Amino acid sequence: MLDWLIPVAQAAAPAAPASPMSQYGSLAMIIVMMVVMYYFLIAMPQRKKAKERDNLLKNMKRGDEVLTSGGVYGKITGVAEQTVTLEIAPKIRIKVHKSSITQVTASTAEEEAKQKE
User: Fold this and answer.
1) Of 9, 14, 50, 108, which residue is 20 to 30 A from 88 by alpha carbon distance?
2) What pTM did the predictor assign?
3) From first to last of its 117 residues, what are the pLDDT tens digits of the chain?
């Protein structure tokens, strides 16, 4: 329907030959944009998640209920530099590496707040 506009537009603005420097400039701009997108979409969220995980491992304390990467729920009875002692049943304790803790399911501070209410 508007096919007649294409030759008119091409005749009005003849194409100038692109210089090699402008092609390299646009390529460099695309690479810079990809690096910026990588940083904001991948690196920044990953760094934030790692910081949250480090914070979780540093703030573990006696009485917190946790979940290990093996699927074991337990209550922290002791915290050492690299290990955590969990009570998984009455009088049954296991020692696990801190890095195997995936999440804190209940904190003693939360339990104290519930008891006060």
Assistant:
1) 50
2) 0.59
3) 556 656 655 555 555 555 666 777 788 889 999 999 999 899 999 999 999 999 999 999 999 999 999 999 999 999 999 999 999 999 999 999 999 999 998 776 666 666 666
